[in-house]
Amino acid sequence: MEPLTAAVRDGDVQAVDTLLRAGADPDTVDEHGTPVLCLAVEAFDLPMVETLLSAYASPDRADALGRTPLLRAIELGAGDLTSMMVGRGAHLWIKDAEGRDALALARHWHGTDVVAELGRRSGGRGPVDRRAVRSDSGSLCEQLSLGGLTVRTGHAAILTGLERSYGIATPFDDLLSRALAEPDVDHDVWWATTDTLSGRRTPATWDAAAALRERPDPLERYFGAMVLRLMALFDESDDAPFEGPLVDLFLPWVASEPDPRVAWWLTAGLADTPDPRCDGPLTTLTRHIDATVRHAALSGLHRTIQRGDREALSAAVARTEDADVAVRQQACRTLGSAPTHDQDATAALAACLTDPAEEVRVEAAARLALRDDPRGDEILDGVPFADWSSPYDGLLYEVFRHRQP
C-alpha cells in the first residue's frame, strides 16, 4: 500500500505530515481510486483533513463514483468538515453522479430519514449505535452507526451554511423550525441558524426575534434571545444601533424569565454593554439560581467595579465562596478590575489563595500579582511552564508583561 494512504487510514497525522514534507503527493489515491482526502473525510478525521488541505490537497478531486471531498462531507452530515472544505475554496457547483451540486445534495439529505437511509445502505437490521460528538467549535451532533456505515446528523446545519454561501436568504420561520427540530440547544443547527440570522442585522430580523419573547415554548424564547444577543455582539458599526434596544428589551425580560438557559443569553447580552442601566440588574443576577447566569453576570460587572460601585464589589466578593468553581474563578477575575488601592478586593483575592480548586488559586494569584501584591507568587511559581495549549497561558503572559520594566 502507498505509505501516505496507509498513514491516512491509520489516522497518523504526524506520519502523514512527515510524508508530505518529504514530497508525498497530497492527491494520492488508493487502490479504488479514492483520494486520501476523501478517506480522511470518511473517517471524520478533522486534523487529518486540515493537514492534507494545508499541503494543497485538492478539495475538488473526486473518487471513482464522482464524489468530491465536499460532497462526501455533506452526505456524511459532517458540518465541521463541510465548513472547512468551503472555507478552503471547494467548488460548490461540482455535481455528483445524480447531477446534484452541494446545495442540492444538502437539501436531499435534509429531507431524508437518516436512520432509514443508513439501514437501507448498510443492510443492517440491528439497533443503530448512537453517540454524541462535539466539534472543535463546541457544537454537538449525533453520530449514527449501523452495519459498518456511519453518518452524522449535521445536515440541517450544513444546508443552512450552504444557503448562506449561495446567497440565499432563508426565511426566519424556516430557520427557527430547523433549530426547534433539535431539542438539544448545543446541536450545531442552533448555531448555524442563529448565526445566519444575526448576520442580516435588519429591523425585520430584530422584530421577528424579539417577538419570540412572548412564546410559551422556552426553546423559541432561547432562539430569539440568542439571535438578538448575537446581532448586537457582532455589530461592528460605530453607532451600535442595537445596543440601546437590546438593553430596553432584555432588562424587563430577564427579570421574569424562568428558564435558566434563556436567562443566560439575556444576562450575557446585558454584560456585553457598558450601559449603566445594567449595573443593578447584573449585581442582582450574581445571586441567580443557575451558575452559568451568575458567571455571565459577574463578567459584566468589571466596569461597574472600576467605577467604585461598592454593591457590585460586595456581590463579587460574595461569589468567591460560590459552590461552582467557574463562578469563583470569574469572581476573582472580576475583582481584579477593582482599583489597586481597594483593600476589600485585594483581601478577597488573597483569601482565594487557599481555594480547593487550582484554577481559582492561580486566577487569584495572578490578579494579586497584577496589583503588585506578592502573596500569590509561590502559587504562580508552581504552575508548570505554560504554552498556548495551557488554560493559564494568557493569564501568565499578562503577569509577565506587567512585570516588565
TrEMBL record:
Q: Which domain of life is it from?
A: Bacteria
Decide whether keyword Repeat is in the record: yes
Q: Does the keyword Repeat apply?
A: yes
> Could you identify this protein by its name?
HEAT repeat protein
Tell me which PANTHER family the record gives. Answer: ANKYRIN REPEAT DOMAIN-CONTAINING PROTEIN 39-RELATED
Repeat (ANK) residue spans along the chain: 1-31
Keywords per UniProt: ANK repeat, Repeat
Print the organism lineage. Answer: Bacteria, Bacillati, Actinomycetota, Actinomycetes, Kitasatosporales
* Native source organism of the sequence: Kitasatospora nipponensis
Q: Which residues form a coiled coil?
A: none
